[in-house]
Structures are given as C-alpha cells and as structure tokens.
Amino acid sequence: MNAPLVDIRDIWHRFGQHPVLKNVSLTIAAGSYTILLGPSGSGKTTLLSILGGFVNPSEGKVLIRGQDCTSVPPAKRPTTTVFQDYALFPHMSVGGNVGFGLRMQGVDGATRAAKARDALALVGLAAAFDKKPHQLSGGQRQRVALARALVIEPAVLLLDEPLGALDLKLRRQMQDELKAIQKRVGTAFIHVTHDQEEAMALADHCVVMNDGRIEDEGPPERVYARPATRFSATFMGESTILAGTVIESSDRTSTVTTPVGPVSLSSALPLGSTAALAIRPEHLVLGAASAGTKLGEAAVSDVVFQGSFKRVLATSVEEPSLRFIAKLPATSIVHAGDRVAISCDTDQIILLTD
Fold first, then answer.
1. Per CATH, which fold does 6-235 belong to?
2. Is the pTM for the entire model greater than 0.90?
C-alpha cells in the first residue's frame, strides 16, 4: 500500500482555552481532490492553515511526503495556498504575478517568464500575460491566482473558499475548470468550502467537519447515499429524519416504530434500542401509491420551483413536529395546502449510527 501524500496525526488546536480542532487525524492520497466541508466554526479553515504552515497546532503532527512539516514555515513546505481574495499585486502584470513565487526562489527572468506563460496557458489565459489584474474579470483573476500557485509545482495545493466571491454562473464554470485543471496537473488539491453542491461537484474525497471534528469522510457518493452520522445526513444535502424505537428484531431485519408508523429495515438492531432514520428528498413519494414504506399523510406547506425539480415541504398529519422535504420532477402537479400520502423506497432508508 502506498504511503499517503499528507498524513495528519492527532491534531489539536486551541485559541486560548477554546479547542477549535479536537484530535483530528486524516490521510490524503497523491492526485486526489479533497474537500473540507462544514459550517462556519467547524475548524476546516484552521486545519487548512495548519496544512499551509500559517498556524502551528497545539498538539499533533503534519507529515507531507513522509517528512514532518509541523513547524516548517509556509515558504519552505511543498504547499501553496489560493485565497478567496486572490491577493494579486495590482502594480504587476499578470505574468509578473504568476512568476512572483519563482522570483522569490531565485529563478532567472527568462525561465520565469516561460514557466509563467505555460501556467497561464494551463488555466486558459495565455493572452493575458501583459495585462494588469484590474483589466480582468473576477473569474480570470481567480485563474491567475491558481496559475501563480501551480507554477512552483507544489505537492499540495490548498484552496481557501476560492469561489466564494463569484456569482453562481461563474462559480459553476470555475468548478468545472478547477476539476479539469486538477486532473491535468495531477497535484493533490485540498479545498475548503461550506457549499455542499461545490463539494459534490469537485471532490473525489469529501471530509465533513463539525465542531472541530471529522464527522464523516469518503467518496462524495457514499457520504451522500450512506452518511455516517445525523449531522452528515443533514449537512451533506437535506434529509427527513425519523426517530424511533426497535420493537422487533431478528438476525437480518428489524422493525422500528416511528411517529408515522412502523418501518422495517434489513439490519439487525438490538430490541428496545433507539434508532434514527434518514430519507433523502428524492426518495420520498407524494400522493401516488407506492409499494414501499408508508409514512402516513402530510399537508403541503410550500412548493418551490427550482428549474429541474420542485422542492416540496410538507408537515406530517400524524406528527405535526415532523417536516418532510421532498424533491419532485419539475412537471409534478402539487400545491401548497394539498393533503397527500407519503411513502418511500424501503431500500433507500438510511440507518444513522449516532
């Protein structure tokens, strides 16, 4: 088995007496696109700062390529960081900005210019070499910052919410470009965001953080389809959560009583134990008869058209504190005030372990 490119071991970090990272361990493979995903205050940006050398952890180690880099300053470790605000020098040309890191390394002018042109070509800005940053759009300046980071050929590229300042259309365009560039150069990218859509669009390794800890990690398809915890199920996309108690159990199946009726699962659970079940919006069926699990009736409170689908909120008739979140085809005929039967595909019910 190949050693990981980045090995984060038992990292703790405190601001005063307040812990912002709590015993975080994580390995990152060479050539991967890792997303650190979580809400504000979850510790993701602090972890990225520790990886970049801008913050020294209170405890623990950071190994890159097998070398202990925990106390190595940013300029001397094999990482570069792309920040949300781009941090381009306004008085320098685009080519000068891209070549700045090479200049600090003592690379001669001709080599510097050639490498800067190659890096700009990589991000689709070959013609911008002699322009100034103010002559470029936000998306172009972001690509210049990316070229500047890549030109020094880091082992790991760190991206701190790099798309946060862009509008929705440009953000989606840059997501496609980032993924394509990462595949071309093969550098490991570690990217911080709080945007679940961005995480699923870019990552092949998704790390969900909350309150200074890693809640879940793995391929985004697995984290979404089979989240490990309640937090992961509600942050990485939306879910309807049912709480219940196991009333029947055998070697292969269990029945959980919930406020909207019994739910059978193909999992052996201890009799009398509590269980939390998650159902993704696209797996709920409203109105039409279903051969799956019946979940009672609900009153539709809101219908939001979102282009390719309709997002429907409905309140359970049997348990008014329970709100269903459903994603229906855009052509579905459903209105606020409708009273509908609710069901779901039994195989798509997620058993949460926490």
1. Rossmann fold (3.40.50)
2. no
